[in-house]
Amino acid sequence: MGEKIHTIFVCSDSVGETANTVVQATIRQFNASQVQVRRFGSIRTEDEVRALVEEAAKVDGFIAYTLVLPELREMMRQEAIRLSVNAIDIMGPMMQAFIDTFKGSPKRKVGLLYQLDEQYYQRVEAVEFTVNSDDGKDPSAMKQAQIVLIGPSRTSKTPLSIYLAHKGYKVANYPLVPEVKPPAIIYELDPSKLIGLTMSPEHLVRIRTERLKAVGLPFGAKYATGERVEEELAFAMKLYRELGCKIIDVSEKAIEETAGLILADR
């Protein structure tokens, strides 16, 4: 006959991720190939707690739990004693230490850690959206974007977009070139979500010259000449005035500073 399967019950009034993480870390410290973990989330009633402890007692397992509501923690404690089940309160002692040391009062609201995880997934979604909308790849995405950056090449559109995406904002950006008419959708957007980026001609020439060196193109390429830069900046400024959008000169600004100016109005 094979070895007996040992069962650990993870119980939570949220998703149980905290308790499960502790349990998995513990299991790795042992030769525990015959251990299974069963998770029970969204526990809300004393009857659910009672049934869970009874099930653990039947298989000689133990319980690791994170229950925020004191009445559920007390029921877990009483039932564990009654049925001789080992039940480990993962969060309770930490909350009590906080109360005893800092005289704080817990919110007693379930799922707060999960809400933080939701914010994380929102940021991931924002980054994915922004990457797929970079450099005018999908002009139609501008309608779904929360922020739309427009400007000539090398005015920090992409790094600024990614920075804002990590803040949770869906960002699209579009490069402006005098020879290419901007997509009609730009004129349909709310000007409040449009940001026109500009830069001093001297600064932009330096950046483009360095870019030419990096990609191995000849130093005298039209892309980095003062005349070309002046033409592109003039074209951009004319468009910004037509659109009525906010204009930011990014010449001497760090990405964080420019992002702060954009988010200050939101």
TrEMBL record:
It is an enzyme of class 2 (transferase). It catalyses: N(tele)-phospho-L-histidyl/O-phospho-L-threonyl-[pyruvate, phosphate dikinase] + phosphate + H(+) = N(tele)-phospho-L-histidyl/L-threonyl-[pyruvate, phosphate dikinase] + diphosphate; N(tele)-phospho-L-histidyl/L-threonyl-[pyruvate, phosphate dikinase] + ADP = N(tele)-phospho-L-histidyl/O-phospho-L-threonyl-[pyruvate, phosphate dikinase] + AMP + H(+). Keywords: Kinase, Nucleotide-binding, Pyruvate, Serine/threonine-protein kinase, Transferase. Coiled coil: none annotated. InterPro entries: Kinase-pyrophosphorylase, PPDK_reg. Its EC number is 2.7.11.32, 2.7.4.27. ADP binds at G151, P152, S153, R154, T155, S156, K157, T158. Pfam families: Kinase-PPPase. The keyword rRNA processing does not apply. HAMAP family: PDRP (MF_00921). Bifunctional serine/threonine kinase and phosphorylase involved in the regulation of the pyruvate, phosphate dikinase (PPDK) by catalyzing its phosphorylation/dephosphorylation. Belongs to the pyruvate, phosphate/water dikinase regulatory protein family. PDRP subfamily. This is Putative pyruvate, phosphate dikinase regulatory protein. It comes from Paenibacillus phytorum.
